[in-house]
Amino acid sequence: MTKEERKQYSHTYYQVNKGKILHRTSLYYKANKQNWADRYQNNKETLKKKAKEYWPLRTYGLSFLDIDTLLQEQNHRCAICGCLLKEKKRCIDHNHITGKIRGILCGRCNTGLWSLEDLEYRNLAEKYLARTNEKE
Predict the structure, then answer these.
(1) What is the architecture of the domain spanning 43-136?
(2) Which key words are in the record (predicted)?
């Protein structure tokens, strides 16, 4: 059986037996709850690091090396404001329609860019600012 055939078989098997598999997994977890909690506590940092590396791959198809290349192209700076990007605060900017990656931004610029792209939100924000500025 080739890798692709095995993958297809596993997928089909899971779909057919989903209820049984989830029930069995639930029973196993309940019986070994403390073991899982201890395992998580002992490996918390490693698990966080792996999840952080896996998330862009799953979400955008970007590997750790792809992100590193983007960061090097941008000199580890935000593509909009140019501030130095901290590891925890960087955001992968992408076109929500095409899914194409545009660059890496700081959290502030990523939020600001979202508000500019969303015309309905931008109009509401402008009305709010106009209304509150009139009161002053």
Answers:
(1) 3-Layer(aba) Sandwich (3.40)
(2) Endonuclease, Hydrolase, Nuclease
* Overall pTM > 0.85: no
Q: Please say whether the beta carbons of 70 and 76 come within 8 A.
A: no
Distances (CA, A) of 75 to 24, 68, 78: 49, 10, 9
CB 81 within 8 A of CB 73: no
Q: How far apart are CA 33 and CA 16, in angstroms?
A: 27
Query: 95-118: per-residue pLDDT in tens?
Result: 888 888 889 998 888 888 877 777
Euclidean distance between CA atoms 80 and 59, whole angstroms: 22
Task: Give the pLDDT confidence score for residue 2 in this predicted structure.
Answer: 92
What are the boundaries of each domain within the chain? 1-42, 43-136
